[in-house]
Amino acid sequence: DILVDGKVCDCDAVVTCQVGDPVPLQVKLTNWSKHSVGPFALTMMPYQDYQNGVHNYDLQDAITFVGSNTFYIDTVKPTKDSVYFGALLFLYTGDFYLNIKFHEDNCSRELPLSWLCLPSVHIRATEPVA
Question: Which residues form the Trs120/TRAPPC9 fourth Ig-like domain (predicted)?
Fold first, then answer.
């Protein structure tokens, strides 16, 4: 589950926020399997989609994270969940997207890291209301 500014996000919905206001993010990973899972790393990466196949991830002048954009998850037991909180601060108006990825954080494996990607979250940063 992904919540942006307290609202559950749907991959088809656009979340609107104001430039200069921190936007709270909450990501909840629920383990529905019969076995414990982990360790994982959860990474959130904002980007702009230029609608021509190009994604701009170089947004340090437009967006900043309040806190970290990567969280480490040790183990999630069966039927339990793990919730992570963060916030984004938009410095300019525009349409932005947020990739949220979980990847294995176990360096003892010989196989390549596997990724679980959630649908991108669409966030529109608008001018503050005067």
Answer: 15-125
